[in-house]
């Protein structure tokens, strides 16, 4: 694989030198063609791989920051880059729908949630809706925000560790060390979430979107979802739907995936519901990283349920 990339790199350099267009870089051309190429299908996996591999691998997560990576469809050149990667990190649990429609080299794929597949949550009977540029989609079927059960997140990080140690055996000890740091951090957040779950004590809560199934199960949160978006102010129909839900599930809090519009917060407050943000961090955050976003998520819940 290294030889292959070195040759590509030489060809690339020659091509660039002869055509004089060094600014044009496609997804296929790597910034570090001499290093093993690791392609990740969502931000948590990219972050795990980056942290553990350090500078020993080139870790690429090519989805644009405004797309939901679960429903994102990569362009042909990006699919080609995945096909040429030395390691492809998949979330599994039906996460990357696009991967079913293309041929990826199975020997390069690591399904990071395969180890706990028997514990996947399957949901049914929910209408199709759309958010972002990806078109209509449904969340029915296997729930895929697997890492929000932080013990599952640790297992996914362990799958990344094992794959990287095979890919770059010279870095085995460093990878183990960095994995242990990630694990310790996630364990501590996991303990804090278990404590929050206990304090909530099964009180009904609503979620803006059906993405918190594993969070709810692991931390014992009695959570029912709407199909709302943080940037969309609920209209009369949406408010009626919520009233119907809270008639049997009298929630005092809504958990949002991102900072909700001020008007949404006010509309909820008017019917006795407070808002709290828990960003699943499936995509690259505007600021901070996977751990800082999850840490502020935990802090938000701790403030809401002291
Ligand atoms: Zn959705």
Describe the model:
The chain is α/β, with parallel strands linked by helices and 306 residues long. It folds into two domains: 2-18 and 26-111 and 119-182, Nitrogenase molybdenum iron protein domain (Rossmann fold); 201-304, Rossmann fold (3-Layer(aba) Sandwich). Helix content is 42%, strand content 12%. Helix 2 (43-53) links the parallel strand 1 (37-40) and strand 2 (58-60). Helix 5 runs parallel beside helix 9 (290-304).
CATH topology of the largest domain, what is it called? Answer: Rossmann fold
Give the SSE order as H and E letters. Answer: HEHEHEEEEEEHHEHEHEHEH
Largest sheet: 4 strands, parallel
Q: Helicity level, as a percent range?
A: 40-55%
Shape: globular
CATH class annotation of the largest domain: Alpha Beta
What is the total domain count? 2
The CATH superfamily of the largest domain turns out to be Nitrogenase molybdenum iron protein domain
**What's the mean pLDDT score?**
89
Regions with pLDDT < 50 over 5+ consecutive residues?
Answer: 1-28
The small-molecule ligands in this entry are: zinc ion
> Strand portion, in percent?
5-15%
What Rg, in angstroms, do the CA atoms define? Answer: 21 Å
Corresponding CATH architecture of the largest domain: 3-Layer(aba) Sandwich
Q: Please report the number of helical segments.
A: 9
Q: Determine the oligomeric state from the structure.
A: single chain
